[in-house]
Every structure is written in structure tokens, then in C-alpha cells.
Amino acid sequence: ILVDEYQDTNLIQAEIVDFLASENRNVLVVGDDSQSIYSFRGANFANIIDFPHRYPDCTIYKLETNYRSVPPILSLANGIIAINTRQFAKTLRPVRSSGEKPVVVPTRNVPQQAEFVASQILTMRENGYSLKDLAVLYRAHYQSLELQIELTRRGIPFDIRSGIRFFEQAHIKDVISYLKVIANPRDEMAWKRMLKIYPGIGKVSSEKVWNVLKEAADPLEYFRQSALSVSLPSGVRSSLSTVGVLLSELETIDFEPGTMIKTIVERGYGDYLSSKYPDHRDRLQDIEQLSAFATQYSSLDHFLSELALLGELEGENVAAGSIPDEKLTLSTIHQAKGLEWPGVFIIWLCEGAFPSGRSVGKEEDIEEERRLFYVACTRAKDYLFLTYPLVSEGTWNPSFIRKPSRFVRELKPSCYTKWFVDQRGKSW
């Protein structure tokens, strides 16, 4: 019996293998305990780590020769994973003979982190690398927001392996629809999208409400005063009343988009996420990051205009004559397992972001997060950049100083080079 990727098997799969092998005990499993990162999908780390206990007469063969990465990257990776206590101790040995040390780059804040990554990508492209040779990896999809925006501003095309573009996600479109209604009460699509979030309001009801509003001199004011007079079931009328109260509150916030987004979530949209999506926590993180991003805009119109501009820039190429399918890769680390690139950037390496705040306090969870970091670093062939913001800003929480990830603090200073970024985004 042969089993590949054994570190990703769940409990039932392991029991099936053990049952089939129970008579002859002739089983070969191949896997890497250091790349066991899918517990959230049901993978059971104990399957591989306890295999010698279930089969005490087994022989263990360690495959430690690495053909991918330059020696300094492997040295850093070996140092990372050696800290875990539950593992089969291994030391990756390079076939390649030389290379550059990984680079650790603290940045002032999240926007500067995005600026540095985008600038360095363009520099590497000028030095002969194609965009498809480069990847930016992160712990969670929300951490790519500012980078997506910065890449779009600079006309750097990218593919996202971790999902769809940030502003194309349903929950982001939902929240923005409220803002669009406030900014432009004649936006039909925004009205209909917003209304259909509420109980009892579907395509027919939202169409009926809009047909009344579009005839009004001021649709927003008319809705607050007269929408309940529309002939609709009582449940729909109750939902319309809830919408009216929220829109009135949003108008009193002085059109500050970050605070408006926070208010939308607190006044019902957060509950809507919880009731509709199993991954509602991840979606809420996306919205929190959107709110933090929006705080840098002085007005709602400015914020929405920027979003519209980003949409128009989306398809532009990095330079005239560039290869049509030349695109940078953005991906969560989970989606990047098994892949490789000459140059890799790992962003948001600060406590609470990577490792995830949900993992802190449980040693087994921290060890899986450390394995995730190890997987991310070993995707790099030639160059590895590790970045983190020193300050986070937002409306959910006040600005605060971030601690570098424990995974960065655990690195020996001799295994990396440290760069700093000045006010103009130049590194040194």
C-alpha cells in the first residue's frame, strides 16, 4: 500500500490505511511532517508523527537533498523548523552552491510595506526577472488589500491564487453599496444590492422600491420619509425601516468612510455575515482592513473615486511591450504549497497577523503556524524578502505599534540581511 502526501491525511483516511495493512503490514507512506499545514481542513498531524509508534518495526528514510533553493534560504529554513518540538528532525542540504541571504525589511506602516514590495518587484523586473518569476505570500487574504491597490496604481498585473480580487468579493461589494447610496442616491445597482441584504427583500421587492425612488427629486430623503408607504408585505416594510434608520445614521458621520464602514458592520451587517457565511470571521477581517484603508481618505467622494479609478487601471500592463500573460502571483501560503518561484515576498510578519491571533496560546497551533512559515520560505529559489509593518492603523482599533512576528525574532541575525526603508520608499 503506497500513500503520498501522508501529512495531509485525516483521521479516517489513516484508519482505512491501517485497516488495509493490518494483515501484511506492508505499507509505504511518503510525506513531510514539516509541511503539515491543513488542520483546518481536517488533516491530522498525529497520523505522520505517530506512524513509528503504530508501526514500531518501520524504517524511516529522510530525503534531505534540496534542489530548489540557494544555501542561505535553506539555512534560514532549517533554523526556523528546528524550534518545533514535535517533528522528525531533518536538515535540508542544498545542491546549489551560492546565493544571496534572505532580506528582512521593517516598514513604517502597511502602505509603506506595499510601496516597498511594488518597488522591489519593478527593480527585479528591470534586472531580468519576469513578473511570473515572482510571488507575494501572506497568511490571510485580507492582508493583500493595500498591495493589490499599490500594484494596480503602478499598472503591475497580478493573478490571485487565494481567491478573487479584494474589491470583487461579495461582502466588500455589499459594504460599498451602502456608501454608494449615500454618495449618489441615484445609483440603482447600489440600492438593489443593499436592499437585498435584508430579510424578506428579494429581486421583486427591491425592484418595486427602486421604481418608486427613481421618480423622487431626492431618492434618499424620499426613502427615509416615504418608503414604508410602498405596497409591500409587513416583513419587508420592517426591513425597510431598519435600512432607513441606518442610512440616517450614516449621513450624520460627516462622510468619513472608515467610520461609516464600521457603523454598517455594527448595525447589522456583522450579524448578516455570521448567519450566511461559515467563514464569516475571515470576511469580517476583510472589512476591518477595508475600514482601516478608508481612514486615509478625507471624504467619501474621494474614497469612492479612488475605487473607481483602481477598477479602470486593473487591466493595464506594467510597461509597453510587456508579455501579455506576464503576471505577478499573489497567494495565501496554504494555496502556494507545492509551488516555487525565483523570488518570494512574505508580508505582514507581525504578531497577531502571522502567526494568526487565533493560534496564540496553543503550542500545537503555534507549531503549525511555524510550519506554515517554513513552507512559505522554502517556496523561494533565489531571493526571499520578509516584511512587516511597525504600525497598524484602523477604525476598529486605534493605531498601535506592532511587534515583529516571533518567527522573525527567532531568526539568527547571521542568516539574513536587514534593510530599512526611508520616507521616499527607498531601501538601504
Briefly, what is this?
The chain has 428 residues and is α/β, with parallel strands linked by helices. Helices cover 44% and strands 12% of the residues. Helix 5 packs across helix 6, helix 7 (170-183) packs across helix 8 and helix 12 (257-276) runs antiparallel to helix 13 (280-294).
Can you describe this structure?
This protein is α/β, with parallel strands linked by helices and 428 residues long. It is built from 17 helices and 12 strands. The protein has helices at residues 11-20, 45-49, 51-54, 71-81, 110-126, 145-153, 170-183, 188-195, 203-213, 219-226, 234-251, 257-276, 280-294, 300-313, 333-336, 363-377, 406-409, and strands spanning 2-3, 28-29, 65-66, 93-94, 103-109, 134-138, 158-160, 328-332, 341-346, 380-392, 400-401, 417-418. Strands 5, 6, 7, 8, 9, 10, 11 and 12 form an 8-stranded mixed sheet that branches. Strands 1-2 form a two-stranded parallel sheet. Helix 4 packs antiparallel against helix 16 (363-377), helix 7 packs across helix 8 and helix 7 (170-183) crosses helix 12. The longest helix is centred in the middle third of the chain and has 20 residues, at 257-276.
